[in-house]
Amino acid sequence: MYLLTGKPEDSAYKEVRGLSRGLAVLRALNGMPGGMGGVLELARLTGLHRTTVKRLLETLRQEGLVHHKDDGALYVLSFEVRRLAEGYVGADWIDRVASPAMAAHLSALSWPSDLATPDGGFMIVRESTHRASLLSQHRATIGTRIAMLTSAIGRAWLAYCSDEEREATLSLLRERGDAIGAVARDKAYVGRVLRETRRRGYAVNKGELVNEESVAAIAFPVRLSGHAIGAINLVLQRNVVPDREISSRYVPLLRILAEEISVGATRLSQRGDPS
After folding, report:
1. Closest Cα to residue 116, out of 76, 147, 71, 87?
2. Cα–Cα distance between 9 and 4 in angstroms, integer?
3. Which DSSP state fits 91?
4. Which residue in 229, 218, 248 sits closest to 98, CA to CA?
5. What is the pLDDT of residues 221-274, one digit of tens each?
6. Beta strands in the chain (DSSP E)
7. Do the beta carbons of residue 102 and residue 254 sit within 8 Å?
8. Coil, strand, or helix at residue 221?
């Protein structure tokens, strides 16, 4: 729970409770996966009533510090909030490049896409077209944690990230005592997956995720200065789209989208905007 006080006892001024509560909501939202969450979750984390949280979020939204996701069910930090810290814009490329590009390519791809970045040994979905795709089986995926080694989107990032990031991620995963850790400790398996992904140029998953046996996915890295900063996938139903059509039709389309996002992120970086 976030503390709503914390002022020095000898302060000559009274606390502005509305400001303190608004900051508590921002801190709670910042600590959630992908910087996004719902009213009930934020109320639990801050100890505030859900009506108060809703009112604060709407005020923050009017100020441009948060915006809606999934038709208002979720709130997410906007890049504007990061400008409060010396102009830092940590995920500017997602809002300004990836999100509009994914929306523009949806009609051609039809099937839904997720864009994810690494966090704590998982890929966290930061943007998605699931809510807009008529072919989606999942309406809300933003903030979802995706396994690194058994997903196409995780494999795409891991195969093309820097050597230091890859080793740090694998070391973190190897320490786990569950099935995820067992997979990470299988060096032969990990090496084979990464080699095949690089040889192919993109990553593949065919029903390897738990409870997603009917799903096939392909993914490309999103790169900056030669190294992956994230990855974007395309999620399809295996019994609907044959492998030949995936490779001949959807791989080229997703490659174009990934390259467009990579180029846009690079241009932001070259202009001095952090990515």
Report:
1. 147
2. 14
3. T
4. 229
5. 999 988 999 999 999 998 899 999 999 999 999 999 999 999 999 998 887 654
6. 36-37, 66-69, 74-77, 114-119, 122-128, 145-147, 203-206, 215-224, 227-237
7. no
8. strand
